[in-house]
Amino acid sequence: MVTVADARAVAETVTDPELPMLTLGELGVLRDVQAEPSGRVVVTITPTYTGCPALQTMRDDLRARLTEAGFAPVEVRTVLTPPWTSDWISESGRRKLAAAGIAPPGPAPRRGSGPIPLALGPTRTAVRCPRCGSPDTEELSRFGPTACKALLRCRSCREPFEHFKEI
Amino acid sequence: MAPQNDTPPRSDMQSQTDTQPDASDNALVALSEEHDEHVRWAFGTGFHDPMAGVDTALPDGVDGNALAAYCLMLGDDALIMSHRLQEWCAHAPELEEEVALANIALDLLGQARLFLTRAGQADGTGRSEDDLAFFRDAGEFRNVRLVEAPRGDFAFAIARLLVFSTWRLALLDRLTASRDPVLAAIAAKGVKEVAYHRDHAALWTVRLGDGTDESHRRMRRALDDVWPYTEELFTAHDIERRMAEEGVGVDPSTLRAEFDAVIGEVLAEATLPRPDADARPGVGGGRDGVHSEELDALLAEMQSVARAHPGATW
């Protein structure tokens, strides 16, 4: 007997290929798991960034893990809307990011009316250093090793670190 | 080594297990077993369909061919701009910048894939993103001329990115209201990404413009070089006008005021004068497939492997 809860429990153990400390559920890209009476399982995911090259690996991993657990057939669907936001990263996900030395995102920017404002301000940030906890940090580059992360530096302990961007 | 279409590469990998006592040591074997059902297209990232599961019905009353032509414009702008940014790999002035430009190129490539996939759905031909990216000739590309101009120096790359992302952000922001739910969804994701691209280009423009005499001089020259391409960005093509009238697309002539305001803010901060160069004669027509010879050279490189080994998988 296939149940949604069983399928969901399995799907939620699948981790992100580029952030292996996080499950897809904690990252907020796992949007839905449905089990049909026929036994078919349909999993819905959404990409973080449009060009995220990890999406296909997520699909393969989800299908493989659910198939191993005895679910068949397994279909993985992609949805583009509503667009993923870093606000969907769970509290446990944020703790795991910080423990891995990646500063978790703050609240995603809220859109006011009118054109999107330019951000020409200083490169000092409100992000705390995940190593020493100092709030005295600065941005080195708004683009880090993956699309979802920026590169920062702590001005207290002088260590560079990654920061999960707010989008 | 050329893949042989009549012999699946997988069997080559499997045959290695005969000589490998412990197959788990072999990454290729492990990969092929893990992805047993998925033979991968050799030149992409392995997506079979970037919109798998997305509802792809066309909005009521919209002509599929016109929508496809519009999607090609939006997709080709992103694809060719992405390629020019990718040319900075191993050439950027510092490692962090190389990573940044590559990330921006990746975002745009992702947008291109979705727009091109949408184009192939809308015109009913079922052409895939790869068919459209790798098997069209220059005359079939619908990108604006700005994105195909040669790589230039770093100041040119920044000036072009500033102009392109300021224009595209204004465009995508309005496209989120499209009657086509697929275009609206692509735009909603794209807005978040391109906002970062624009900030990145703006910060570099300020750093270089308000930097040394040499950086100021070169940033100013780069803006002068880019400026003649801007007129085309705001000149509505018939397809763009029609799609705007039908509530599907955006008339680019409506973007000029926002563009001018943003560029003005950046240039003031960067202590740079606004370029007064007029449109260069002969620059334009990109939306009708009229391109410079530089696009031929770009496509020859971008398409060479796909055309040498059509349909190859690994």
Structural description of this entry:
- The complex is a heterodimer of chains A (167) and B (314).
- Chain A is α/β, with parallel strands linked by helices and 167 residues long.
- In chain A, 21% of the residues lie in helices and 22% in strands.
- Chain A contains 4 helices and 8 strands, in the order ααββαβαβββββ.
- In chain A, strands 4-8-7-6-5 form a 5-stranded mixed sheet. A 3-stranded mixed sheet of chain A has the order 1-2-3.
- With 314 residues, chain B is mainly alpha-helical.
- Chain B has a single domain, classed as Ferritin, core subunit, four-helix bundle (Ferritin).
- Chain B has 12 helices and no strands.
- In chain B, α3 runs antiparallel to α4, α3 crosses α10 and α4 runs antiparallel to α7.
- The N terminus of chain B is likely disordered.
- Chains A and B meet through α3 and β3 of A and α4, α6, α7 and α11 of B.
Q: Low-confidence runs of chain A (pLDDT<50, min 5 residues)? A: none
What number of structural domains do the residues of chain B give?
A: 1
Number of helices of chain B: 12
Structural class of chain A: alpha/beta
Q: What are the low-pLDDT stretches of chain B, counting only 5+ consecutive residues below 50?
A: 1-47
User: Overall 3D geometry of chain B?
Assistant: globular
Residues in β-strands, percent of chain B: under 5%
β-strand percent of chain A reads: 15-25%
Helix content of chain B: 55-70%
Mean pLDDT of chain B: 85
CATH architecture of chain B: Up-down Bundle
Features:
heterodimer, A: alpha/beta, N-terminal domain of TfIIb, 5-stranded mixed sheet, 3-stranded mixed sheet, B: 314 residues, mainly alpha, Ferritin, 0% strand
Describe the protein's topology:
The complex is a heterodimer of chains A (167) and B (314).
Chain A: H1 4-11, H2 24-27, E1 30-35, E2 41-45, H3 55-68, E3 74-78, H4 91-99, E4 102-103, E5 124-125, E6 137-141, E7 149-154, E8 160-164
Parallel strand pairs in A: 2-3, 4-8
Antiparallel strand pairs in A: 1-2, 5-6, 6-7, 7-8
Chain B: H1 9-15, H2 27-34, H3 64-86, H4 95-122, H5 129-134, H6 154-175, H7 181-209, H8 213-226, H9 230-233, H10 238-245, H11 256-269, H12 293-308
